[in-house]
Here is the input.
Amino acid sequence: MTIRALLVLVTLLAGACANEAFIDEVERSASGSISVGGRLGTTNLETGDCFNERSGSVVRSVDAVPCDEPHRGQVVARVPAEPHDGWPGVTALTEEAGLRCTGLAEEFLASGVDQFPGLPQVDLAAYVPDESAWEDGDRSILCWVELAEPVVFDFRPAIGA
Here is the structure.
């Protein structure tokens, strides 16, 4: 198992399809876990959700799956962005995500990620809202675990979700 405490930041860029960040085509169980997968906007991802990124360089939605199905990503936390009078810009949000998610990553790695034998390389990543999503009310940073290859591990016990 290789764990890299590298924070890879993936930002949402402004564009005509920004409302895709709010898509919700999944079904959730009574406990809130995804029971039937589907396309899920990054704004609707919740702590513990498992997913696979969709192809393309701009990420506004993912293919969410139950955690017992192969996936390459799982949400560690959603944290509120610092208050700003207006749109702070991608650079400011990316810097803030680096600070906020790195702290969460250290907690996650220290909390027992070693309890998952056979785990492939783990990177940490973040999504930040683009200007359109920010204006539509998404003022949060999403920190998530990115795996080098698909797994069926569920990190919820390690992240307290």
